[in-house]
Design a protein that fits this description.
The chain is an all-alpha fold. It is built from three helices and no strands.
């Protein structure tokens, strides 16, 4: 270090200083500015990328919450539809039972009416047969009684005795 201080030359120092300033000027003009621009550009790109990542993260969270809301709404709608379907099924079953009971009652009433009409028809036929049979029996009895002269006179006397005169 001593040697540098002892060999100090003002002219050499001036020219070295001038070359150094020129080198700094050249570096500033041709290298420093493009390097700083590239560094600033890179820094700006990183900031934009971070900002975009943050925005994307927020968007993903919003989408996730929207998806959860949609899923919850879909579940509620599914539950509502299932409840409605169950109610419709129960109503259909109830209606079918009611219709079956009504149809059964109608069939029973029709059967009772049919039985009653057949019973009345059978009674009417029985009465007709009984009356026919009675007439046949009476006719045979009268023929038997009227064929005998003595019985015939007794019958006429008896009938005359039953008749009251005014």
């Amino acid at each position: 270090m001593d040697k540098l201080i002892n060999d100090f030359s003002l002219g050499l120092f001036f020219w070295q200083f001038l070359i150094f300033i020129g080198l700094i000027f050249l570096l500033k003009k041709f290298a420093w500015k493009p390097i700083l621009d590239a560094v600033n550009e890179r820094e700006e790109g990183i900031k934009n990328a971070l900002l975009s990542a943050e925005i994307a993260k927020r968007d993903m969270q919003n989408l996730r919450s929207d998806n959860e809301k949609l899923l919850a709404e879909a579940r509620l709608e599914r539950d509502s539809l299932m409840k409605d379907a169950r109610e419709i099924k129960e109503k259909m079953i109830s209606d079918a039972k009611t219709e079956a009971q009504i149809a059964g009652q109608k069939m029973i009433e029709q059967a009772k009416a049919s039985i009653e009409s057949e019973k009345n028809a059978a009674l009417a036929e029985l009465k007709a047969q009984v009356s026919t049979l009675s007439l046949d029996i009476a006719e045979k009895l009268l023929k038997d009684e009227l064929s005998n002269k003595e019985a015939q006179t007794k019958l006429v006397e008896k009938m005359l005795g039953d008749v009251k005169l005014n």
